[in-house]
Design a protein that fits this description.
Number of helices: 10
Largest sheet: 8 strands, parallel
Strand order of the largest sheet: 9-8-7-6-5-4-3-10
Strand content: 5-15%
Bound molecules: phosphoenolpyruvate, manganese (II) ion
Structural class: alpha/beta
Distance between the termini: 17 Å
Length: about 280
């Protein structure tokens, strides 16, 4: 099938064929009917807050813990993350709870530093077309969570994934995290239609990030449900013990109670959409 909008025929490694890919990151499973929930703070701010969050998430059977140690911030004067100190807390939280972890890598030179501490590399929106970084993670045996660029087309996004796969690593999960729109009420416009389209064009699992996708806490639950109905294989949500005091992205983070309510709702309806996920 030649895609009307471009050169999708050139995709050789991630193009949709009969077999939809399942990607595993530790015990977390993306694809083949499973719905994975990744949750945790935007940034690892300290040991206690991370361990408290991880313990709560584990109680609720969350699939994976997230947390940024190397943070891509718009302003160079904003909190940049705890770097390796943060990764050590992440490892401790993972060992304590048994939950696998995902953290962002921004620079190919950091790969060996981050590798021992994480179960999955996250490539953020701002680095979706950092080709040196894409090629580097493609040489490693760890799954990659690739987030859609702020202004990336579907084709840009798929070719970014292809860059990783060409190097040998096709354990890639695509994450729709919203694109820049003209509205100033929401932080981004979460492109729900990207979910079925990416699954139509590629064999990769697709998840959504309604926290960055909207920037608004109140929209996380409805967008999670919309993503689920569109066939998403999972969701990534920012959760903080005290969002109002978060060093970054507090306004798009859920507290523990709101997260529990979201999970309850998700459990009620999740199985209804299993056949859509499996398509
Ligand atoms: C994140 O998930 O920590 C993040 C920075 O998101 P994005 O790259 O989508 O902005
Ligand atoms: Mn964030």
């Amino acid at each position: 099938m030649e895609h009307a909008g471009g050169h999708i025929m050139e995709l050789k490694r991630i193009k949709k064929n009969c077999n939809r890919k399942q990607v595993k990151a530790g015990s977390a499973i993306f694809g083949n009917g499973n719905f994975a929930v990744i949750a945790g703070p935007c940034a690892i701010e300290g040991r206690e807050m991370l361990i408290d969050t991880a313990k709560h998430l584990k109680l609720k059977n969350t699939s994976m813990l997230r947390g940024g140690a190397f943070k891509p911030r718009t302003s160079p004067y904003s909190f940049q993350g705890l770097e390796v100190e943060g990764l050590k807390y992440m490892k401790e939280a993972s060992e304590l709870t048994g939950m696998p972890v995902v953290t962002e890598i921004m620079d190919p030179r950091d790969i060996d530093k981050i590798y021992p501490y994480t179960d999955m590399f996250q490539i953020g929106s701002r680095n979706m077309q950092n080709f040196a970084l894409l090629k580097e993670v493609g040489k490693y045996d760890k799954p990659v969570l690739l987030k859609r660029g702020l202004a990336a087309t579907i084709e840009d996004f798929l070719f970014a994934a292809e860059y990783i796969a060409v190097e040998g690593n096709s354990d890639i999960v695509l994450c729709e995290r919203g694109i820049r729109g003209f509205d100033s009420y929401t932080r981004n416009t979460l492109d729900i239609s990207a979910v079925p389209l990416l699954k139509e064009l590629s064999m990769l699992p697709v998840i959504i990030d309604p926290s960055h996708g909207t920037g608004l806490r109140s929209l996380i639950l409805p967008m999670t449900l919309a993503g689920l109905a569109a066939g998403a294989d999972g969701v990534m949500i920012e959760v903080h013990p005290c969002p109002n005091q978060a060093l970054s992205d507090g306004e798009q983070s859920l507290d523990f109670n709101d997260f529990d309510r979201l999970l309850e709702k998700l459990l009620e309806v999740e199985s209804c959409f299993k056949d859509i996920r499996e398509r």
